[in-house]
């Protein structure tokens, strides 16, 4: 289906889907930032719980892409070809849902790690929400500054 047809007849639904994706992740970010030590929030904001549920919505968008609109052709792996591929509105929503889900997973992993160590990390969580890996880098730098050893950073990947 041509992009112009999708945008002409589905622009309102595309905007609603975009804001739905944002609205599905925002409450969890706000809960982790504003109420970090609440026991219910610690239970709900587990990296393998909510992001997995959001993955179902992601899979639904992939299903729509494949069955309703058809996957647009990818004319190579150059930047120009990838940009044209991402111009398709459903492809953009799939990529946006992927980005939001992975960033939320990362944020929840940082949150759980920080809560176990009784560290409040609103700045790092906000950075992760907005810029993904930058929040992880900021958190790792903070661990190095707080603990002044690689032992705390190694804790990210195990005990």
Summarize the structure.
This protein has helices at 3-34, 39-44, 50-69, 79-86, 89-116, 122-131, 133-147, 150-154. It is mostly helical and 159 residues long.
**How does the overall form come out from the CA principal axes?**
elongated
Secondary structure category: mainly alpha
Number of separate structural domains: 1
What gap, in angstroms, lies between the N and C termini? 50 Å
Overall mean pLDDT stands at 86
Low-confidence spans: pLDDT under 50, at least 5 residues? none
N-to-C SSE string, H for helix and E for strand: HHHHHHHH
Binned strand content: under 5%
Major β-sheet annotation: none
Number of strands: 0
What is the helix tally? 8
Level of helix content? Answer: over 70%
Radius of gyration over alpha carbons?
19 Å
């Amino acid at each position: 289906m041509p992009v112009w047809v999708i945008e002409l007849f589905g622009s309102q639904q595309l905007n609603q889907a975009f804001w739905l994706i944002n609205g599905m992740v925002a409450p969890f970010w706000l809960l982790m930032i504003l109420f970090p030590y609440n026991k219910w929030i610690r239970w709900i904001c587990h990296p393998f719980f909510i992001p997995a549920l959001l993955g179902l919505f992601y899979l639904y968008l992939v299903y729509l892409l494949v069955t309703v609109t058809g996957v647009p052709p990818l004319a190579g792996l150059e930047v120009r070809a990838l940009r044209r591929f991402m111009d398709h509105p459903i492809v953009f929503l799939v990529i946006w849902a992927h980005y939001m889900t992975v960033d939320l997973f990362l944020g929840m992993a940082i949150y759980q790690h920080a809560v176990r160590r009784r560290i409040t990390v609103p700045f790092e969580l906000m950075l992760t929400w907005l810029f993904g890996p930058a929040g992880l880098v900021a958190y790792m730098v903070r661990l190095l500054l707080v603990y002044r050893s690689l032992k705390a950073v190694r804790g990210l990947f195990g005990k």
